[in-house]
Amino acid sequence: MATEIEHKYLVTDDSYKSMATERHHIEQGYLNRVPSRTVRVRIIDDHAAITIKGANRGAARPEFEYPIPVSDARQLLEQCEPPVIVKTRHIVIYEGNRWEVDEFGGALRGLVLAELEIPTESYRYPLPPFVGANVTDNPKYYNSQLGTA
């Protein structure tokens, strides 16, 4: 079992676009959105995975992720609870840290969130210029809850 420790922020401007070193198309849906155990299906470009995440304990939670065939993922996305999320992920390396900036499409168009996975709860890091308010502990910004309210 892996433990994910992630900090999440609102994005205040589009400077991340010129800083990005990679871009990826993502489609993801949830077979289960119960906060104590979410089950996500995700296609990133031409790869797919199913992920089970446990309950958050602050910024940390258990995570299990397994690759699956893209054809299976497409079928599973049809079984997911609405909405299926579509986004472009921009990878920004800022002062040695790998930021994932998600620009959402569809009904969530206009929402942009930046995430940073960190090795320990006490890890300190500088914020890139596009980062705004910290929303790590706000369930409204959990991917599993986006577009459901």
Fill in the keyword field for this structure.
149 residues; mainly beta; eight-stranded antiparallel β-barrel; globular; single chain; Hypothetical Protein Pfu-838710-001
Task: Give the integer mean of the pLDDT values.
Answer: 93
The termini sit apart by 31 Å
What is the annotated CATH architecture? Answer: Beta Barrel
Question: What's the helical proportion of residues?
Answer: 10-25%
Poorly predicted runs of 5 or more residues: none
* Number of structural units classed as domains: 1
Report what the structure shows:
- By secondary structure, this protein is mainly beta.
- The chain has a single domain, classed as Hypothetical Protein Pfu-838710-001.
- It is 10% helix and 54% strand.
- It is built from two helices and nine strands.
- It has an eight-stranded antiparallel barrel with strand order 1-5-4-3-2-6-7-8.
- The longest helix has 10 residues.
- The chain is globular and about 40 Å long.
Summary, kept brief:
This protein is mostly beta strands and 149 residues long. The chain is 10% helix and 54% strand.
Give the helix/strand layout.
Blueprint: E1 2-11, H1 15-19, E2 20-32, E3 37-44, E4 47-54, E5 60-68, H2 70-79, E6 81-94, E7 97-104, E8 112-117, E9 131-134
Antiparallel strand pairs: 1-5, 1-8, 1-9, 2-3, 2-6, 3-4, 4-5, 6-7, 7-8
